[in-house]
Write a structure and sequence with these properties.
CATH class of chain C: Alpha Beta
CATH topology of chain C: Alpha-Beta Plaits
Shape of chain B: globular
Strand order of the largest sheet of chain B: 2-1-3-4-6-5-11
Strand order of the largest sheet of chain C: 1-4
Radius of gyration of chain C: 11 Å
Helix content of chain B: 40-55%
Structural class of chain C: alpha+beta
Number of strands of chain C: 4
Radius of gyration of chain B: 21 Å
CATH architecture of the largest domain in chain B: 3-Layer(aba) Sandwich
Largest interface: A-B, 37 and 40 residues
Oligomer: heterotrimer
Largest sheet of chain C: 2 strands, antiparallel
Order of helices and strands of chain C: EHEEHE
CATH architecture of chain C: 2-Layer Sandwich
Distance between the termini of chain B: 42 Å
Helix content of chain C: 10-25%
Largest sheet of chain B: 7 strands, mixed
Number of helices of chain C: 2
CATH topology of the largest domain in chain B: Rossmann fold
């Protein structure tokens, strides 16, 4: 028998500190597989956020640098402008990208910065214990919306993919999920396409990934993976939000 | 040329590859100069960022990959940059940050003041760190110290603040540029350029191990000790036989020089100590002066900031008086001369 | 197609997603705790694994290597 699946080279053999069933673990693996397949390991620079995935640099075997909260898009801009040969990706959570980092994200996309953004949306602030995120659903209970998010007081869940799609400089934006085999396959295709956009110098690309957070949603891993289909995709529909690349999937 | 433009020209000649800024009075000539002169240079990058916060984070990114990078702003914008500066210091990344200070606090005024001294010299952002702070007092010095800022930043892997002010930025004086722009843009040796033929590198400051963070802090401060020994700079003027020494930096020192010339002509023995590095502060020079001089007048355009460093350096070996004008009101040399002579006679100095 | 998988007992966190998604139902949680205190998933020895790799696709911990032939 032939070995047909093993750990990607760009993923170190460290065990993840993430919770059982956490989406970060799956997304890290998919990004690493794409880096391997596109042969980018020796020129990739990754920028993780503060948050549960602050330790992403312990897992990706590529050059990585910390960013201040929300500023990943600006840091990536500085990197790519100073050293265009690098393949730069930001890895950001929903607070990082849709809360504190909205200005940096919108303007990097607006300038068409040739960077790839991996946006992990789990509708909650995970690392700090489960507070409301900009993408928390209406009625969703979190530690700062103990009675359920009240849109009249707390606003509506923000759809960053649709917002960024309005900008000329944003070339490819897709929303995917990592909660089932079929969705994980689609997510990987989207991530690969987003990196290809950078390789082809086409502009700004982002993949928004609906990701389970069993711990802060107070569910089992399986329940959390199912909740994404049951509830999250109603608010955040999956699919291509914008594609100006003029080509089909990277596959 | 004007001060702001001189900074820009000097930066380009120092091999500055990236400038990221945001308009704010009174340094707009600088961002405009970089837009005109840096943006089209081969390999260089100019971005008018969406905010001062973005700009400092772009500088962080460019510095990560080895580029000489600079940003500039004025007081409120420098407040915005503090987190970014803390990160630069923590990650031991060189950068040049220009503050053409204006009146504060709050939106304040658009005219020169010196009330960002604490912000510049005490770290400014969160955590224990320092940045080198250079205080020019002429357009020539703006140019010279800009070039020096890039060299010091790279040498010690530390952010360097060029602390100017609105008057210096707007002044028109002749400048001589002592360097030509390098033929090749410099790329710092240990930069993050992709794990090509070497293990992947991580640049970070966060640790869940307090002992590790403690060691990082000790290591930073060992470097700061070295900088104190090697890079402290100051200038004295007519201090050899002085009975009273005025201590002033930046534009205040220019004004003080004029005032001192006036009172000297009436026989008062007054001199000037002008710190050029505000951090590290010229403690040794002060202590050397106190062997002969016991009276000091700190003159600054704020409510009293550098005076604390003077008092610390004196260690009780001299008397310190203070003349401060906050809010951007710029005193004339004759006003300051009056203050000096009044003090001189009050103290019974001959 | 016959298949075989190897699950790293110590990397597995017992999330049970592979158990749920396996189209052949050949996975279940073992009854022996690993060093981290989880009950890791294990392959039943009924020989029905086809090496489809869905388990490896969903496994968050990259704990599964898949063989097929």
């Amino acid at each position: 028998m032939k070995k047909i699946y093993t750990r990607p080279k760009s993923l170190k053999t460290t065990s993840f500190h993430y919770c059982p069933g956490c989406g970060h673990s799956v997304v890290h693996r998919l990004v690493a597989e794409v880096i391997d397949e596109l042969n980018l390991q020796n020129k990739t620079i990754g920028i993780p956020p503060p948050g549960c995935s602050v330790f992403a640099y312990n897992y990706f075997d590529v050059d990585m640098a910390e960013s201040a909260h929300g500023r990943g898009a600006a840091v990536a801009t500085g990197i790519k402008r100073a050293f265009p040969e690098a393949i730069v990706f930001t890895y950001q959570g929903d607070g990082d990208l849709a809360g504190i980092g909205t200005a940096e994200t919108i303007h990097a996309a607006n300038r068409g910065e040739n960077i790839t953004t991996i946006f992990v949306n789990n509708a909650v602030y995970g690392m700090t214990g489960g507070q409301m995120a900009p993408t928390t659903l209406s009625g969703q209970k979190t530690t700062t919306t103990p009675y359920g998010r009240d849109v009249a007081l707390e606003g509506y869940p923000i759809k960053m993919s649709e917002i960024l799609a309005l900008l000329e400089g944003a070339v490819y934006i897709e929303r995917v999920a990592v909660n089932s085999p079929a969705n994980i396959r689609k997510a990987k295709k989207a991530i690969r396409k987003a990196f290809q956009v950078q390789i082809d110098h086409l502009g700004f690309s982002m993949v928004e990934i609906l990701s389970p957070c069993p711990t802060n949603w107070k569910m089992s891993p399986l329940e959390s993976w199912q909740w994404i289909d049951k509830e999250m995709t109603k608010e955040f529909p999956l699919g291509v939000v914008k594609d100006r690349t003029g080509r089909a999937d990277a596959d | 040329m004007n001060g702001n433009s001189a900074i820009g020209e000097a930066a380009i000649r120092a091999g500055c590859q990236c400038y990221f800024g945001y308009p704010i009075t009174p340094q707009n000539e600088l961002i405009e100069y970089m837009a005109a002169h840096l943006s089209r240079r081969k390999g260089c990058c100019f971005i008018q960022a969406e905010s001062e916060i973005s700009a400092i984070n772009m500088v962080y990114g460019a510095s990560l990959v080895g580029a000489r990078a600079m940003t500039s702003s004025s007081s409120p914008g420098i407040s915005l940059k503090q987190e970014g500066i803390s990160y630069l210091a923590a990650c031991e990344l060189p950068a040049v940050i220009v503050n053409m200070s204006r009146g504060g606090p709050g939106l304040g005024s658009i005219v020169a003041a010196q009330s960002d001294y604490f912000q510049a010299t005490r770290g400014g952002g969160h955590g224990d760190y320092r940045t080198i702070v250079l205080a020019p007092s002429s357009v020539q010095e703006l140019a010279d110290l800009t070039h020096k800022a890039f060299d010091l930043a790279d040498k010690y892997k530390i952010p360097v603040i060029l602390l100017g002010d609105g008057v210096l930025g707007q002044m028109m004086e002749p400048v001589e540029f002592k360097h030509e722009a390098p033929a090749e843009l410099p790329v710092r040796g240990d930069a993050l350029r992709g794990a090509n033929g070497r293990p992947s590198k991580i640049v970070k400051t966060f640790t869940s191990n307090p002992a590790e963070l403690e060691e990082i802090n000790w290591s930073l401060f060992r470097r700061y000790s070295l900088i104190k020994k090697q890079e402290t700079a100051c200038e004295t003027f007519l201090a050899e036989d002085a009975k009273l020494i005025v201590v002033a930096f930046g534009i205040a020192a220019r004004i003080a020089k004029g005032a001192i010339k006036t009172v000297r002509s009436t026989g008062l023995k007054v001199g000037l100590l002008r710190p050029i590095t505000l951090w590290p502060f010229p403690v040794e020079k002060v202590q050397e002066l106190t062997r002969k001089v016991k009276h000091y007048l700190v003159f600054e355009m704020n409510m009293g900031q550098m005076i604390e460093d003077v008092q610390l350096a004196l260690e009780g070996q001299g008397e310190v008086s203070f003349y401060g004008r906050p809010g951007g009101v710029i005193p004339t040399p004759s006003e300051v001369a009056l203050v000096i002579s009044r003090l001189y006679h009050q103290k019974g100095l001959k | 197609m016959k298949g075989f998988i190897e699950i790293s007992r110590e990397l597995c966190k017992g999330c049970e997603l592979c158990v749920f998604f396996c189209p052949k139902g050949v996975l279940s949680l073992s009854d022996k705790l690993n060093a981290s205190g989880y009950l890791p998933a294990a392959l039943n020895d009924n020989g029905e694994c086809t090496g489809c790799a869905v388990c490896a696709l969903v496994c968050p911990e990259v704990a599964i290597e898949v063989y097929r032939g």
